[in-house]
Design a protein that fits this description.
The structure is a homodimer of 330-residue chains.
Chain A (H helix, E strand, L loop, with lengths): L5 H9 L9 E3 L6 E3 L6 E10 L11 H19 L2 E12 L4 H17 L3 E10 L4 E10 L15 E5 L4 H12 L8 H8 L5 H9 L5 E4 L4 H12 L2 E5 L7 H9 L4 H7 L6 E5 L8 H6 L4 E8 L4 E5 L2 E4 L10
Parallel strand pairs in A: 4-5, 9-12
Antiparallel strand pairs in A: 1-2, 3-6, 4-6, 7-10, 7-11, 8-10, 9-11, 12-13
Helix pairs in contact in A: 2-3, 2-6, 4-5
Amino acid sequence: VGDFTERGLIDRIQRRLPKAPPWLLVGIGDDGAVVEPERNRVEVLSVDALVEGVHFDRAFVAPEAIGHRALAVNLSDLAAMGAAPRLALLSLALPGGLPIHDFDGIVEGLTGLAVRHRLHVAGGNLTRSPGPLMIDITVIGTVKRRQALTRSGARPGDDIYVSGTLGGAAAGLRMLSAMGRSGDGGSESVIQRYLYPEARVRLGLMLARNRAASAAIDLSDGLSDGAHRIAECSGVGMVIDADALPIEPDVRRWFADLGLDPVSEILAAGDDYELLFTTRPRSAGRLRPARQHGDAALTKIGICTEEPGLTLRSGGIERELRRAGYDHFR
Amino acid sequence: VGDFTERGLIDRIQRRLPKAPPWLLVGIGDDGAVVEPERNRVEVLSVDALVEGVHFDRAFVAPEAIGHRALAVNLSDLAAMGAAPRLALLSLALPGGLPIHDFDGIVEGLTGLAVRHRLHVAGGNLTRSPGPLMIDITVIGTVKRRQALTRSGARPGDDIYVSGTLGGAAAGLRMLSAMGRSGDGGSESVIQRYLYPEARVRLGLMLARNRAASAAIDLSDGLSDGAHRIAECSGVGMVIDADALPIEPDVRRWFADLGLDPVSEILAAGDDYELLFTTRPRSAGRLRPARQHGDAALTKIGICTEEPGLTLRSGGIERELRRAGYDHFR
């Protein structure tokens, strides 16, 4: 990375970090960080890696967007558990030829998002990569013990909701790949959905605080995958209404113009980082704070059933909803 | 990785893990792990990555040794902070062509060491790598607040100690590279020092419990680097006695046979994962438990001084001890 030492690169990260909070007793610069746990709360931990050539293409994703996404995917996991972000550890494997300007951009995208969510970078690791750029982030958040959202709390009769809109990230990625970094000709707002995903942290907190959700997951690997996972962990079936899926007009049009069925695409489309969650019908009123002050609109898209299996209903016709989505190893 | 799905690979990891402890409220299989913090202790967090082609060569390091080392380097950071290991998150980036047997071997090496140190794997991430194998591990340990060892507590007059012996890992790596995976002709015990480094967890705990050490660091990047870091963080100078450095006869002979000065090699040699620490002279008695029940012999190798700078003394001759060691970016 340019002609910088490890120490020099760490300095460039530290320079962008706000003052350490009082609970961070020892920060960057020792063998480990030392942290005072938060009283009366449990910790939620998650790790996610972004690998060049697997999760992004440096040819048309700017360094700031790479850094942003690397942290957003982790924040999304905290959101799905109803946890408030607290700290992160960054582990970066950097190709020798990475320009220092790109390094700074990645750090900028990452720390910018961290500051917005009051997440503190407590430590990390830098190493050289003889291959792709890799960004591995561990995040820790906190939540009251009885409020943590899991995938296993759904019951037959629960309503199924999704936040925001679906398929935007997948459509944005296709636009970018088709047209190169500039994205000319695509929809700017759709492309931004891919480049700068927003983790639904505030929504997750609101669903957890008044126990509005019985189960939750983030849609990192698409709606079909998320629905199957909640169904499996909770031991329920689901009927999902294809006609109710929230899809932006630009996204619907883009898929249709390519001769693709928008619904099929959206079932398998990852990277949206919206929340899929279930709610007891009698708790519907508890969704009001989330609707009024959450990050995104909420749409009811189906219902949990006693009968196992997932069904997709569209215009009165029902068909089995097969598991679709991205498996890195298939 | 063979023809396995992500789920299949995760199953192969879980199968090797002991029963989850009661404080692990939600383990592998949700968006995040949920953990009950330990009362009256602070948390020590560290992350370290092992990258094929940078930190190890698959041609002569067996999968079990790769998995072992990936965790050992992290445990060593906890040891240097005086923390008791608690949990780990694993993030693996796997080349498509990795045989499932090698995957199992890596997991075996890793979980075997985890079990020995009562460290629980609470979660992780698997992804494909289009390039090298990468293993990124985050560990969390706990320690009483006033007992955490840092790099910044040394004062002028403090004695400087090192655990075990030095240079074994570097010599072992040279033996292996020279002779291929079998290591024929090299010293088996020296090669094991490279392949299966032992983190000095028990020693770290003992130094922390009765506050025997005023500062500590692990020697991941060599003695010179470690000494400079403690000196810098503590604002002291150091005089180190080259003739006192604990070097195994096999190691000394191996370097000498190559026409190399053992002391110079050892100052820059990384991968030993011994602890370097300082002790107030009046606290020397507090080292007794560590000497009797710690993992390794302790050797006094120098003293901290008021005058800044590091000096190496040998046979009555003093010279400046320059900073040497491995920088991934130089």
